Each structure stands twice: as structure tokens, then as C-alpha cells.
Amino acid sequence: MLDFPLLSIMTFLPLVGGLIILAIRGEDEEIVAQNSKHMALYTSLFTLAFGLYMFTRFDPSVSDFQFVEESGWLKGLGLRYHLGIDGISMFFVLLSAFLTPVCILASWDSIQNRVKEYMIAFLALETFMIGTFCALDTILFYVFFEGLLIPMFLIIGIWGGARRVYSAYKFFLYTLLGSVLMLLAILWMAMNVGTDMTEIPMQAAIPVDIQKWLWLAFFASFAVKMPMWPVHTWLPDAHVEAPTAGSIILAGVLLKMGGYGFLRFSLPMFPEASAYFAPMVFTLSVIAIIYTSLVALVQEDMKKLIAYSSVAHMGFVTLGIFTATVHGVGGAIFQMLSHGLISGALFLCVGVVYDRLHTREISRYGGIVKNMPRYATVFMILMLGAVGLPGTSGFVGEFLVLLGAFQTNMIIAALAATGLILGATYMLMLYRRVIFGPPVNTDAITMPDLNPRELGLLVPIVLLVIWLGVFPGVIMDKISLSVESLVSNYEDRTIQGPHQPKDTLEENKENDQKMDAAQ
Amino acid sequence: MEILAVFSPLFAFMVAGIFGKSIGDRGCQFVTCAGVILAALTSILLFFDVGFGGHAYAKEIAPWIISGDFNVSWALRIDQLAVVMMCVINIVSACVHVYSVGYMSHDEAKGRFMAYLSLFTFAMLMLVTADNLLQLFFGWEGVGLASYLLIGFWNHKFSANAAAQKAFVVNRVGDFGLALGIMAIFVVFGSISFDTIFEQVADKTEVTFTFFGHHVHALTVICLLLFMGAVGKSAQLGLHTWLPDAMEGPTPVSALIHAATMVTAGVFLVARMSPLFEFAPTALMVVTLFGATTAFVAATIGLTQFDIKRVIAYSTMSQLGYMFFALGVSAYGAAMFHLVTHAFFKALLFLGAGSVIHAMSDEQDMRKMGGIWRKIPFTYGLMWIGSLALAGIPPLAGFYSKDIVLEAAWADHSWFGNYAYWMGIAAAFMTAFYSWRLLIMTFHGKPRADHHTMEHVHESPPIMLAPLLVLAAGALLAGAVFYQPFVGSPKAGGSAHGEAVTETAHAEKPVAHAEKPQDKAHNQTPATKIKALSADISAEMTEALETVKEMDAEIAQGTDRHIFWGKSLKILPENDTVEAAHHVPKWVKFLPLVVGTLGIALAYLAYLLSPGVPGRIARMFKPLHILFFNKWFFDELYGQLIVRNARTLGKAFWSIGDQGIIDRFGPNGSATTAGKIAKALSRFQSGLVYQYAFVMMIVAIAMVSWFFFKSGLRDLG
Fold this sequence. Notes:
The complex is a heterodimer. By secondary structure, chain A is mainly alpha-helical.
């Protein structure tokens, strides 16, 4: 299709940029910092330009993977370097490429120490993010997926707030737990069904009881990433301590990896197990929506509140994915993309006032609509997007997810829909307490309004949020075919039931025992 | 044309919202007023075209959400129901826009205010012209947003913000039902476009949903869910608590949103979905009961309040109750009729109250008013017109619509229809009573305001009074003019009613024209345009009425309401209570008028002739008075039951669930252990990185060796 490896360029361009920054040396700290910043920005903008090119060249009439690159990697080990995207992953790649320059610009003034390293960390992060979404080989996926944690961990641990160590540790502990189990599952699959992510779903070769174990192993990793209740407690802490840009990536892209994983692994590779465990996922999702919404209601820290709201929003995503309906899955993808933009921008908004007043305490603000009218407007639109007002991107995803859920189970849909009410409650309360009200805090009401840089960051996102809300076809048209083929494959498998020749089953069992022994 | 009628307010909003700073307050006021007046003119043209010409149509603009078999477009549905709503919305909105230029002249954010008003108008138009339920939902939430922004317009006031938030959240409770209703419709009908749904209704009456093993009638469930949305938006009992609080917003907002248009969206929704409700008798019964009870309860509260705007707010709630029980007995035309007349006289009352508040230097407490009628005679006169219309005194608008509503309820001949009738009669009595209580307390008696305020009392500027005249013309005429097409003549030829109507219409015509010369003095204001417009409207409407009469003559046996509403309302023949309403006994027709007059007389007796009476009565029925005065304790109940519990639960989940259980036994437990080990390392943070790298390395080694091992095995095997 293309005569140059677009996805590889997108994946590794940031890393190359990072290496170049590494080479920047000089006597003057200031100049080094400036150069690194510019270098990082241009690199990420180039990547974004490639991403937009990819967007225009993407063919929505094909449900197969596109821009595929394949070559032997470590041939002796049977490892292959295999990249490609379909409708589902394309927008995640684009989202990552879009949010990275946003992050770099967001940190322009607020990061003062070790700027060079910071920029390298972000570029490395971009490589890992894009790599994760492009990888079509399970081992390669694992490398990117896990590698991602290192820069993220550093960003929280080094440039974070006061309790950064605790938070970074918590983050690490949770993700580690999941990753180890996932690795075992990937290894088992490499032994038995291979590592090609495009092939495995077609083979239908994994017996159901093994599927269940594999499903659980992957679930452990993805559920932590989502994060789902009750393994969500790392998120508020990580958000609170992470620098603004860290929060943007965390909320914008990192949380989507869980959802993406469910779509890439759980549903297509273990459909029977997914159907088996779906009620459990529904229950956890509904708990997440209601429980974390209520918790968000009593938060005093802006970032914590938004973090908890993210958990609730991700509850909609998991709910949608496991309905395994066209609406549910499409809605979940849309919701993830929309949430990536909205919550990323909301964290940016928190960063704006944090840079001015150095506190995230809600009660330290209030009445700032007078001195920051532009900020108030931007925040308002984002808040409405988070609440899921029709006409913003937040609505489309939520509605489709609920529609899918309603088709599957009305009670679940009704319970999940209470999230609409609770969501409105905590977001409006946050907005009211920060933006409106009598001007009691004198330092808050003398803060200057958004500067051109901040405005330039937020306005495009705000416009995107509205644009996608009014014309969601931009995304829906491109993902629909991939979603439909995913869902129809799932339905074929779950309705016909497992059709396994007996001997494979036994062979697999033996393998399983071997693996147990190996452990 | 329809594009102009719907999107010019949006355009005005965007211009005023984005370029507000550069075009200045004047610019914003001009753009928004012009936008809405243009919309009003075009919608009047549409009204004649569609309403009397019968050219209903739908127009698709762009695709919206397409996901598999779920396919929704942005589309405008211009049918009879829509054009009636469009006219009401745009005319009242134009009046309110112009009025606001005067009312908000001392405010510092005039541009923003005007922009929000236009945004509201646009959202409301989207709601009524929607061709599918999702676009309706868009408008539905959009008006909620505009209402939120406008209630909290004075955003430095804590109470205003709290009220705005409450309005949004309580509305969301209703929206929750509506959203589920929409989904249920999709599941049952496979589409959410009105035409597709309505075509299939008759085939789907047997469909059931299963809840925990029980089969329930799907259409009933759907209708009840939709009605839940209506209850929220139209402030019916249970979800009404936001409406009185919404009076925190500037008065023009109360007139436009919380009296004339937004709160009637629920009525519109039920009327729009009439083809469904017709097949769900249980749902209709529930609608009737809610409406009737709301009409009564709200009226009792209205009797005891002292804030002038709150009295009118409770009266709005009560009148909405009338509309709902009219819907409940399948008298959709009557409900829409009352909606239209109510929009005019209630907006008039609110704007009149605004004029009073303006005159009294922002005082809203009626206990601090009194004795000002000589100082603001114009406002006083207009308030009289509004109150007479509200109390249902002929020949004003409210008389016609309230009568037909009550008659239809009685004519339903069901227990809940009777319940609604008697509740309605009781409410009609109270309505008249509190309306005159309001008039007397505000304008008559000894001045109770302080000397300073009294000296400042002044008539409002022409720009505020001119829109009031338009509304007053509506309050005077709308009933007589629209009686015929909306709930039109009975089968047995021209009744006494019908003839009286025509006479009244003709009699009022000169009045509307006579108002014109007064206005010449302030030719410069946009008010002139409106004035001319209003005269045109009344002239045209009289003409239209004549056309209808002719049509009526042609189709001797036909009922012209059927011609007017066309396919936009569906009434099963056996449910046609509007028809039956024309044949009820005389006493049923006259009772509302009798109790109304009685209410007025009693109010005079109690508040003007012997002012000690109200206090004595209040003491005599102390428990009742406490109940009414405290609004039946709904706020307290919800505060205790829901708001507090939600917060307690949230705190408990956070401190006990998240921190106490999950963290303690999860990461913190292991963190302590690991922390001890990590202490050995000089720098904890980098120590962690090493740990992680270490784990990664081990994992990588394990992986690689496993592969070697495995491939080795394979080679051997």
C-alpha cells in the first residue's frame, strides 16, 4: 500500500528524537533545556504529521490490518517484527501522536529541573505507546506494553509531587502483578498457538477451560490498566502526584491500553471465556460506575476528583466491550477516544491553575470566572463533555455503550445509567466550587487568564470535543468495519460453541500440565 | 425557511458568544434580538403554511450517529405540533430578548446574557423540530444546559449556583428515564425515528419485557420511562423541587424558560409520542394522576408563599399539572392549547413581576410591597390581564383552554379523570385566590417598603413594556383565536361556544391596533418592530380563522381540529375526550368559572377588606399551613434521604473501601514489606526503577530461555 514503513517511522521517530536530545550537551543548563524542548516538540509534531497522513490514507472499506510490516526479528526464537493497524487501533495511534506534543507544550514552563531527561522520557513514552497499538505479535506487544511503564514510572517518580514515591510504588506494584500473569499467558500461547495476533483469533484452537485461565491472566493485566474496581486505587494517587503532562498521558492513553487489550486479546482470542466472564465484568463495571462516582463526590482535591471520574468512565468502556454488540464495542472505543481528549484536557485545566497557585485543593479556588473568563469557558465545555451532554463527544460513546448494554441486559443498563446523574453531580460541583461562587480567596481571583500557549493547547481539544459530538461519523465510519467483523466473529464462536477435536484438547491439557510443572 | 427559523438563534449565539467583546453589548443585543425576531417571523410563516395549509414535512440535514443498525440523522421535522411550538418559542423568546435589553441594562455581562438566551432558544427549537428521539434528547439536554447557565447567571451568588446545579441534576434524574426510554424504543422498534416508530406501534402492543422473570408490557414501560423525563423537565410532583429554586435566575429567564417554553417540553414530549401513549392506558393513567396531584399540591403551596416570583413559579407548576392530566385523558389538543395560552399569560405575568421588581429596586418579597399601583399603572394593568387569563375569566385566553382541559377530564368518565377534574377545580379556585392575593399584596394597601425604595418606584422603560403588550395581546386573544383549530367545534355544527369565539376575536382586533399609536414615541427601539409584528399576527390570525371557518363550512361534519393537527397527534377513536368534552353537562362547563370568581372575591375579602383574616386562618389550620408553607417538605425529605446519604456513602467508600480495605490489604501491605528492603538502597526512588528493571530483566531471561528450551524440544521431537 505504501512504499515506506509508515508505522515503524511513527513508532521509532520519537525514540530517535530522544537519542538526539541525549546527545545535546552544553555548559549552559538553560540552553540545553531550551534545545531539548524544541527538539522534543518538533519530533512529536513530525510524528503527528505522519499520523495525520496515516489517517488520510487509511481505507475504511477494509476490515483487515493495513500498513502491515512484517519481518523476522529474532528468527531463531520464532519472534517476528509485525506491525499493522485496523480501524480500532488507528485512532489510538492518532490519539497518542496528538497528546504527546500537547504534553510537551503543557510542560513548557512548569518543568524546571532535568528538562532534558524529562523530554527524553516523554519521547520514549510515545514510542512505546504507538508501538503497543501497532504491534501484531504478542511478544512484541508485550515488550512495548511493559516498556511503557518505565518512562511513566520515572515521570511520576522524579518529576512528581510530594508523595511521588508512594504513588510510583503503588503504580508499579499493581501493574507488575498484572503483567506477570499476562506474560505467562503470552508464553503459553507462544508455545501452543503462536504469537501472531492476526492468526490466533482465526484458529479457534484454544479449548474453553484453558481459555478461561488465559482470559483471567490477561484480565489481571488489563483490569489494572483500565483501571477496574477494585484494582483502581493506584490511579488517584498516580494522578495526584504526576506532573500535569504525566496525568494527561496517564488518563489520555495509558488507561486506554486496558480497553485496547480487551478488544485485541480477550474478545477475539478467547470469545467463549469472554462470554463466560461477561456477567462478572458487568458487575464490576457497574460497581465502578456507582462506587467511584460517589467517591468522586466527596473529593477535595481536583485531580483526585477527575481521577475517580475516569474510573467511572472506564466502567462504561468495560461494560460496552463485553456486551460484544456493535453498539457497545463501537461506543466503548468512541468513549475511550473521547475520554482521552476530555480528561486529558481537564488535567491540563487543573495544571493551568496549579501553575498559578500551586494547589489542587478545590476550596482554595472559587469565583475565578471574573478574572479568567476564557478559562471558565474552556473548562465549562470540557466539563459538559465529561458529563456526556449531547453535542459533545462524551455523549456519543456513553449513549452507544448504554444502548449495547440495554440490548444485553436492561437492569445492568439502568444501573449504569445512574452514572449519568452522579457524573453530573460531581462535575458540576467541582465546576461550581472552582469557577463560580463568591470571590473569597484573594490570590485565586487575581490569577491571570489563559496565556496564548495554554489557549492554543486547549482550544483545539475543545473544538475536537464539539466536532466529534456533532459529527461522530469521523470516527465511527472508520472503525465500523473492524468493529463489525470483531463482533460477528465473536458471535460465530460463542453461538456455535467450542468445536474442538478431542485430541487437541488433550494435547493442550498436557501442555498445560507441562507449564504448571515448569513453574 | 425552516433552517432560518431554527438556526438563526444559533448563529446569533455564536456571534454574540465568540465576538461578544469586539461587537460590544449593543452589538450583542442587536444580533441576538434580530436573530430571534427573524426566527419568529419565519416560524409564523411556517405556522400558516403547515398548520393551515397542511404541508407537514421532514428535512434531513446531516448524518449524526451511525453504528451498525443504529442510524440517526440531524433532521428537522416540521409538522403541526412542531410549528405550534416554534411559534410559541420564538414569539415569547423575541419578547423576552427585547425585554432583557431593558431589564439587564444595569448588568455588566449583558452580552453573555443575550447569548445564553439565544442558545436556549436554539436548543428548544432543536427539541421541538427533532425528527428522532435522539435529536430531541439533544435539545432536551441543551435546554437543560441553557437553563443551568441562566439560573446561575449571577454566578457570584452562592444561592444562584446551588439552584443552577440543583436544576441540572434533578433534570438529569428525569433524563435518565428518558434515555432509557429511548433505548427501550430502539430495542422494541429497531429505530428511533418518529415515523418508523409510529408506523409499527399497532403491531407491537403485545411485546413484553422480562424483569426478574416477570413479563411487563413493553409499551407501558417505554411510556413510563419517557414520562419520567417529562416529570423532570416539566417539574411535576417528585422532581419539581428545582423549579422554585430556579427563580434565582434573572426574571426574563424565569419568563422564557421556567414558564413559557422549557418546562412545557415534557408536555410536548408526551404529545409527540401520543401514538405510543394511546396504546399504553396504564401509562396514561399515571400521567393523569401525576398531573392532577401536581396541579393541586402546587396550588396549595402557591397560597402561602411570599416571594412574588415563587408564587408565579408554583402557579406554573400547577398549570403544567393541568396540561398533563389533559394529556393523560388523551386530550392532547387541549393540552397543547393550554400550553400555548399559558405561555403567553405566564410569560406576561413573569415579565410584569420583573417590571415590579425593577421598580421596587430588586425587592421580591410581597410583604415589602403594596400601594404602588398608582405609580406603575401600566404594569398594574398588564398584571391584571395576566391574572385574569390565569384565573380563567372569559374572554381571556386561560378561560378557553382551562375549560376544555377540565371538561375533557370530566368527559373521560374514568375514576382518574374524575379525580383530575375535581383536583383541577380545587386548583382553579386556589389559582384565582393566590393570583389576587399577589395582585393585592403587591399593588394595593399601605406601602410596606421603606421610604427610599418608594421614592424610586417608577414605570419601566418602553423597551420593557412593548414586549409585555405583545404578550398581553396573546393572553387576550390566543384562547379565542386558537380554540377553533386546536380543540375545534363539535360535530353538531357551530356551537354557542364557537360563535362567541369569533365575536370576541373581532372585538379584540381593534384593541391590538389601537395600541399601535402609543408606541410611535419610541420609534427607534426594536420594540416597534415587535409591535407591528404583533398587530400583523393578530390580523393574520383573524384572517386565518376565517379561512378555517370556510373550510369548516365546506366539510360540514368534519371537525377542524382533526384537520389542523393532521397526523401529528394520534387519538384512538374511543379515547377522543376532546370530542366528548363538547357534550358535557352545563355545570361541568361553568364550575371552573364559578370557583374562579369565588377565589377572586375571597381574595378581596381576605386581603383588602379585612386584612386580619389570612393570619387567623393560618393559625386555625396551623399544621396545614406549615405543610403548605414548607412546600410539603420535599426539599427536606430529599436532603435527608438522598443528598446526605450519597455523601455519606461516598465518604464511606473512599475511606473504608479504598483506603481501609483495598489499599491496606493490597499495595500498602506489600509496600511496607518492600519498603523495609528498599531502605537498604541509598535512594528509594531510583531503587524502585532498579527493581523494575530487574524484574523486566528476569522476565526477559526467563522468556528467552523458555523459547530456547522449547524450540530445542521441538527440534528434538
